[in-house]
Amino acid sequence: MNKLTLMFPGFKTKAFTMSFDDGHDSDIPLAKLLLKYDLKGSFNLCAGELYPEGAEVPVSPHGHRPMTEKEALELLSDPHFEIVSHGYHHEAVGHVPTSEALYDMLMDRRRLEELFDTFVTGHVYPYGSYSKGAIECAKLCGFKYARLAQRDTSFLLPEEDTWYVWKPTAHFLEGDFDELLDRFIKLNNNYYHGKVFYAWGHSFEFIHKWDLIEEKLKKISGREDFWYSTNGELYNYVKAYRSLEYNADTTKVYNPTQIDVYVRHDNGSVCVHAGETVKF
Ligand SMILES: [Zn+2]
After folding, report:
1. Rounded distance, CA 124 to CA 149, Å?
2. Helices (H) and strands (E) in the chain, counts
3. Domain segments of the chain: what residues?
4. 268-274 average pLDDT score
5. Confidence of residue 224 (pLDDT cuts 50, 70, 90)
6. Cα of 227 to ligand 1 centre, how many Å?
7. Hey, how many other C-beta atoms are within 10 angstroms of the C-beta on 109?
8. Ligand 1 centre distance from Cα of residue 11 (Å)
9. What is the pLDDT confidence band of residue 182, given thresholds at 50, 70 and 90?
10. CA 22 to ligand 1 center in whole angstroms
11. Does the pLDDT value for residue 1 go beyond 70?
12. 8 Å CB contact between 53 and 70
C-alpha cells in the first residue's frame, strides 16, 4: 500500500504564509517590501476603520494612522496580497453578545468585498479573542478559516476542525522568531506531509525597525523548497489535497477539484492535475 503525503505546488515541501493586522498606513512600506522580495501576504482589514478619501484621519502618538479606503485599494489590489476580514470595528468577538460579533464580522466581509470587488473568505479575531459563539459566527458569515493570536510552533497544517482556530507559528518580533525560522529552514521534510511557517504582526510595530524586518523578509525569500502563499491560497490548496479520491489499495488517485495537487508516494512524486486520474 502506498504511503501518500502532501507536497505543495511545484513539489515544494514547505509553505510560508504571513498576515498583518489592522490596516494602518505602515502597511504601505511593508507591502512594498513584500513586493521587493516577491513574497505573499494576507492583510487583515477593519472596513469600518478605513477612512473615506478626504476625511480627516487621526494620527496616533506613535505616528501611524488607519489607511484611507483609497490607499488600501491602491496598495492591496496586487495578486501578491489577500484581503482578510479583521472585524468591521475590531470588536473582541469572544466577549461581546453573539449578535454583535455576527454584525462585526458580516459587515466587514460585505464592505471589504464591495470595496475590493473580491471574495473575502478569511477572518482574524481581533485581540485573538474568540469563543464557541464567535467560531459559529465566523462559519455563518461564510469565512473558511479564522486565525488566532496564540501560537503553535509545530509547523503542522491545521486539521479539518482547526481552521477556525488557526494558530500562527510566531510573531515577527517575538524573541525566538529567528530561531524558529532557522529550525524551519533546516527542517528535512522528505518523508512527511508539507509543513508550514506562519508569521504575523502589525506593520505599525515595525515603524522604527524596518531594517530588521527587511533582513527577516530577505532571509525568508527566494528559497527553493518554500511555496509562498497567502493564507487563503494555503487553505484552498490543503482543502484540494484532502479532497483527492483514492481507490482501495491507493494505486489510483482522482482529483475532483479545480486545483493541481502535488503528492508524494512510495515510488516518487506526482502532480495530479485538476480533474485528472493518475495511477501510481
Ligand atoms: Zn487587530
Report:
1. 8
2. 7, 14
3. 14-242
4. 96
5. very high
6. 26
7. 25
8. 34
9. very high
10. 5
11. no
12. yes
149 CA to centre of ligand 1 in angstroms: 9
Is-above-0.90 flag for pTM?
yes
Does 73 score more than 80 pLDDT? yes
Question: How many angstroms is it from 104 CA to the middle of ligand 1?
Answer: 13
Ligand 1 centroid – CA 126 distance (Å): 5
Neighbouring-strand partners of residue 199: 18, 170
For residue 219, pLDDT over 80 is answered with: yes
pLDDT score recorded for residue 56? 87
Question: Ligand 1 centroid vs 186 CA: distance in angstroms?
Answer: 32
CA 274 to centroid of ligand 1, rounded, Å: 37
Question: What's the average model confidence in pLDDT over 133-150?
Answer: 97
Instruction: Give the closest residue to 220 by CA, choosing from 33, 77, 45.
Output: 33
CA 20–ligand 1 middle distance (angstroms): 9
What single letter denotes the amino acid at residue 273? H
Top-level CATH class of 14-242? Answer: alpha beta
Element (H, E) at 241: helix 231-242
Distance in Å, CA 34 to ligand 1 centroid: 20
* Mean predicted confidence (pLDDT) in 158-166: 96
Centre of ligand 1 to C-alpha 168, Å, is 14
Upper half-sphere CA count for residue 94 (Cβ side, 13 Å): 14
pLDDT at site 58? 85
240 backbone dihedrals φ, ψ, rounded to 5°: -65, -45
Distance 259 CA to ligand 1 centre (A): 32
Q: How far apart are CA 143 and CA 61, in angstroms?
A: 34
Cα(21) to centroid(ligand 1), Å: 5
